[in-house]
Each structure stands twice: as structure tokens, then as C-alpha cells.
Amino acid sequence: MSLFSKVLKYVWPQLKKSQWIFYLVVFLYLARIFLDFIVLPVFFKQLIDLFSSENIANSQEIEKSAFRLFYIIISFHVSIFFIARFIKFTYYRLVAKTVKELRNFTFQKIEHHSYTFFSNIFSGSLVTKARRFVGGFENAFDVLMFSFLKFIAIVFGSLIILVYQMPLISIIFGIWVVLNIGIMFLLLRTKIKYDILEAEQDSKISGRLADVFGNILAVKFFSAEEKEKVSFSEYTREGEKRSLKASFLGGKMDMIQHLLIVIIEVVITYILIVLWLQGKVSVGTIVLVETYLVLIAGNLWDLSGSMVRFMRAFSDMKEMVDIFDQIPDILDVPNPEKLRISEGQVSFKNVNFEYVEGLDVFKNFNLDIKSGEKVGLVGHSGSGKSTITKMLLRFIDIKDGEILIDGQNIAKIKQDDLRSKISYVPQESILFHRSIKENIAYSKSNATDDEVIEAAKKAHAHEFISTLPNGYDTLVGERGVKLSGGERQRVAIARVMLKDAPILVLDEATSSLDSISESYIQDAFNELMKGKTTLVIAHRLSTVQKMDRIIVLDKGKIVEEGTHKELLEKNGFYADLWNHQTGGFLE
After folding, report:
1. What CATH architecture applies to the domain 3-192+250-325?
2. pTM (two decimals)
């Protein structure tokens, strides 16, 4: 499938939502071009022929004809003025509506990709691609309407008139136009490859910027400013090379086209002079032909630049279209079941999973978590603790086996439905650049202010929120940078408390809190966990001492399980972890 077809596949359905406006704009614009550039020159030709008549001063009939043409020309200009204003207004409305639809469509397509997809792409690069996709449409549509459509209308309109006026000239015009366009397309096929390469490098540059500025603390801490400067310069140097190659081809196109325009002007002008000397054409006809020549040559010259813009726009859109073509790796089954939780029992049955083909993370993994049971997962880094939570939340799909909630296979449940029944607090809190109230209420869109405040109090966040100048309306900054680590985590915990889902997953949710706050939060968690199935990933073993059961993982296998006391008495893997933890954390 060609690039044009791929782009059109996604753009046309959004444009089609306003198709009546689209067709109206096209019809009116063609009418305006026909009146302004095709018909009006014919009336001017007739007027010039009248002025060049030998007996013009003595002919009342010629005088009447001249004023009649004058009034027609004036009426045409007035009509064209109002049509042009209406076209602009309608066109802007069409573009604004289509851009809105494209933005919504782009957001929806990207949002439905899996957690793995977002883990493997720079967020800055993704934002740039989305912005360029919409901008590419605006540029391409502008070129299509006001350059391509205009050129086609002028060429066909003028050729139709010239066929009746001067058949030979119309044939020469036609051959010249076809030759010119053919050469342009041949050159553009090469140029678009460099435009695509330039667009790809631009995305890499944006991604690199986002990566550096998003981790600016690490850059400064390691005094890596010069290192990052050199690295970024390499990216921009490659971007410069690709841009120069694309620009060189654009200049080559301009040179060839300029030469073709000079040739046609010389040929046509020579023919007209010869015919006039032979008395076969009038002055008005010469002016008409030259007018059409200037119009076609000028628009063809513009067409060259417009084709470059058009191809560049499609190059800008290509990267996002490639993402649209990707099928999300986590999909809902057709007609998914409704998740009904009566007890909250979670079971992993003969689960196989691998990140890389042939390298098993889990093989025939089995784990049953009873209704209301509080289970802690411990183990060295890479043992599979976080992978279990990702599988349960369907951020990743298993290779074989089943994950069941109250006997229902989560693979047959709609993802939104599944995750609405599970509360999750990651180790690194996730906050939006919105108000604290909006961040807490994110888990329950219809939450009242009282419910938000109550959740914040349970998470011991109300105390510090009340001291802020704008209280709950305080903006937290990008990723919550205006708050301390402990404050961010307490806001995230308040959000989970407000959600009050039957299954709770905590990825060391108190790790960012000071000891006093942690004791308060732990009390709140004990209340929150009552009657809920809870899975806690522990990076420091003190967190799981009071769990009903502790699961010890090593290389994707359960090597021990029991209570804290039972596992210490076994003096095995868990006891070794306990004895060798540093500062409360696993090494």
C-alpha cells in the first residue's frame, strides 16, 4: 500500500464526518477559479479586441459592447469576492472540525496501546509524532485545496478555451504540462525518501530532548552537561545532513522547472508573433493566450513548491500512521465477559511467560491467593515480583496458562473492567500536572469534595495539603515535581483509598515516606485491606512482616512460603534475605 493510501485510510473517515462541507468547499472553490481565472480573461480579450478596432471612436455599437463587458466584469468581481469570503469561512470551519476529529482519533489509537508499547518509546518523540501528524494534515489539505485543485481547474479550463481559440497552442500547452508534471514526480519519488529520513531524525531529536530534560537532575548530579551536549550535537548533525539532501533535491526541481517555463514562454510567444504578423490572431487573443500561459506557468511553479510541501506533510504523517498500523499487543476478546467479584480470589494456573522468546520468566507457575488474604511477594531484583502484578493487571499477556479472579479468566474480561476492580499503587507515584483534588479524584470521577478530603485524611495527606496556598487546587507540576516524594506518594495512596476496589496491589507503596508518615499510612492500609484480597511487593522485608502469607520468589519460582515467623524458623532463603538486607532494603 502506498504512503498516500495509508494516510488516506485514516484521514478520510475523519474528513468524511463533514463531507457535505467538504464537497461544498470544493464546488465553490472550483466555481471561483473558473470565474476568476478562466472566464474573466475571455471578457478582457473581447474588451481589448474592441479597443484595438480601427473604427472604435465612431461606433456606438462598440461603445455599448464595451460598457456591457465592463458591467459583466464588475459583477464577476463582486460575485468572486463574496464567494471567496464564504469559501474561507467554510474552509476554516471544515479544517477546525477535522483537526479536532484527528486529534481525538490519534489520542484514542495511542491510548489503546499496551504498557509495553509506552515502555519502548520516548514520550517526547510520541508527542512530536502526534503533533506532526495533525500539522501534516493541515499542510497537505491546504496544498490539496489551494494549489492542486487550483492548478487542475486552471489547466483544464484554459485548455478547453484554447481548443476553440487556438488548437495548436492547446496541444503544445498540454504536452508541456504533462512533461513538467512527469519530471516533478520522478524527482519527488527520490525526495520523499529524504523527507521521511529527516522526519524520523527530528523525532529522535525530540525524544532525546525529552529524555535529557526529563532526567536533568541526573545530568547535573553526574556533571554530564558537556557529555549530553556532544551527544545531542551528533543527533542535530545527522538532522542537518538529511535536511541538506532533501533541500538539494528541492533546488534541483526548481532549476529544471524554471528551464521548462522559459522554453514554453519562448515557443508560445514566437508562435503568437508569427500568427499576428500573418493576421491570423487578434491582440485580444494574444493577451488571452499569454494570460493563460502566465497563469499555468505561475501555478506550475507554485505546484513544484506545493508538491514538496505536500510530500513533506505526508512524511510528517507517516510515523504516526505506522503506529496506527500497529495492532496493540494486548487486545480484548470479542464480546468480553463482565467481571463479577464476589470473593476476590486470585489464581495463577500453569502460567508461562517470557519477555524474550526462549527465555522463560515463569514456567508452569502456580499461585492461589484466597479471598481477603494479604500476601507479600519478596525476592531479589529480577525474581519476577513486578511481572506478577503486570500479568494480573494485563499490562502484559501470558504465553500459556490462566489467571483467574473468582474463577473467571482475565483474558476474557475487558481490560477497563478488570482494572476498575483492582487498586494499584506503584513504587514511583504517578501524578498528572493537575490539581491535587483532580489527582485524588482520578480514580472516581464523580467523587465529592468531602470524599476527596476524607481519602486524603486517611492517607495523611490532608495535613500538608492544608498548608499549601491553594490547598486542594494546587497544581502539582509535571509528574508531581512540586511535591516531595513522600507527599506525592500520599496523594497516590489517597487516590487508591477513594477507589476502594476489592483487590489491592501495592508495589512497596510506603517506600517514599518517612518513618512517622509510614506508621500512619500502615494503619490506614490495615483498615483499607480489611475484606480485600491484597498483594504487596516488598523491597524491604519490614513491610510484609504482618502479611497472612509471604511468597518468596527466585528466578520465577516459588522457593518458600509462609508467615514471617515460619519463614525465619526455616532458616532458609527468606531468613538469608532478612539477615542480609541493607537499611531495611533487599540488596
Report:
1. Up-down Bundle (1.20)
2. 0.71
